[in-house]
Every structure is written in C-alpha cells, then in structure tokens.
Design brief:
The protein has 4 helices and 9 strands. With 159 residues, it is of the alpha/beta class. Strand 3 (53-56), helix 3 and strand 4 form a beta-alpha-beta unit. It is globular and about 45 Å long.
C-alpha cells in the first residue's frame, strides 16, 4: 500500500525526492565526496563539495553557527523545518551563498525573502556574502519551470 500511495501522491514523490537529496548529502559528508548534478539538462555538470553539514531551527541558530566558525569551508545548512520557504538546503562557498530548492513539481515558485533572511543571519555572524545563487534541483528538469518569484535578493546588501 505505501509504495502505491507514494507513487500516486505528488507530495509523497516530492518528499522521497527531497529525502534522496538529503541522504546523498549525508553520504557525501561520510565519504568525503561531492554532489554532482546536470545543469539545465545539458551535459554540463555542477559539482558541489560537501565537507560538512549543520542543521538549524531558526535564523538565530544560523548566526550562532557563523559566530562559532562552523560555516566556513563549504558547510551545508539544513533547516530543521520542513517546507522552509525557497530552499531545502544552502551552503556557503567562500563568499557565495547557494540556496538549493529540491522539487518534483512541474512549476515551483520562490519566496526570496527567506533567502534574504538567511544571508542576513550569516552576515550577522561575522561572515561575508558577496554573491547569492538560487538553484532548483528537479528530476526531469526539462519539465520543471520556475513559477512565481516573490522578493528581491538584492535587499540583503548593506547600504
């Protein structure tokens, strides 16, 4: 029954896909490997290092991780809250914050204010962010489309 329910339930398929991605992150940390993905359905690949991962409950937790020096060197951030707006995982690679949304939906929107909050929390912890990149990881990327985009990541920059 469970297998059939997941196969016929789009939300269930999405959860399984997200869990697969998070499991790959955990295994990459344990083995010292990277995560490799195809970019835009092309032969071009993106390779992300996965040296470590940290979970957080809220933005104060992210600031504390940054203050404690635990976000350097490509550390992945995983929100403990399911359905975190705009990203399921993020990582800081030098001064670039990569927000990663994992989805099986044919159309998926982005609420960029959540990314802005994440950047502000990292910066409040004393780290520098110069670039923000938002990725959508989707199975069957030919069919996946970006839906409604709300917010503006440029608002995180200090005046």
């Amino acid at each position: 029954y469970a297998k059939e329910a997941i196969q016929t339930n789009p939300a269930g398929r999405g959860w399984v896909f997200e869990l697969e991605f998070l499991t790959r992150l955990r295994l990459a940390v344990e083995s010292g490997a990277s995560i490799e993905l195809e970019a835009d359905g092309e032969a071009k690949k993106i390779e992300w290092p996965v040296p470590r991962r940290e979970t957080f409950k809220d933005m104060s937790g992210v600031t504390q991780l940054a203050t404690d020096g635990r976000l350097t060197g490509g550390c992945w951030l995983l929100p403990e809250k399911w359905n975190q707006g705009c990203y399921d995982a993020a990582f800081l690679d030098r001064t670039t914050l990569h927000a990663v949304q994992v989805t099986r939906a044919k159309v998926h929107g982005f609420k960029l204010d959540y990314v802005v909050s994440l950047v502000k929390a990292v910066v409040a912890g004393g780290l520098q962010v110069e670039t923000v990149e938002v990725y959508m990881v989707a199975r069957g990327a030919d069919e996946a489309k970006v839906g409604d985009v709300r917010g503006d990541v440029r608002t995180w920059r200090p005046d």
